[in-house]
Amino acid sequence: MHPRYTVAAALSAALLALAVPPHADASAPPNALTIDSVGRLAEGGSILLSGTYRCGGPALTGPVMIGSTLVQGGERQSIGGTIGAVCDGRSHRWANVERAPESGEGTRFGAGAARVEGTLLRLESVSGLPLPQVLVAEERAITLVSEATD
Fold first, then answer.
1. Whole-Å CA distances, 77 to 64, 91, 108, 124
2. What is this structure's pTM?
3. Which domain CATH number covers 127?
4. Fewer Cβ atoms within 10 Å of its own Cβ: the N or the C terminal residue of the chain?
């Protein structure tokens, strides 16, 4: 290859590298949500779901919360909601607790296989009206374990 073409190609590659900006959020940690593989069903009918979350970046403003929904058989129930998640780019534990509503035959949920849907969301104020913005949504098969004592 002619030396002049080699220099021109190298110069073009260098200019192209400078012209393409790096990913805008390269320094911001990614948002993440995990759901523990085991949920707890207490004797009084309370259900505990838990896991970890991570959110952050200086541009992340407004309250951040973690919602969870338990699904088992044909039943579906929102289980608590963690409000005021700390968004500092580090992993933190979350836990949501809710008393399961009862049917005529006791609680609607029992020990065994279930599914949890988790959402990390931020309330963003638009013209004074808080609107939810989903940061991360996850779903996981879990096992509900009864902690009832005999």
1. 21, 26, 9, 25
2. 0.73
3. 2.60.40.2550
4. C
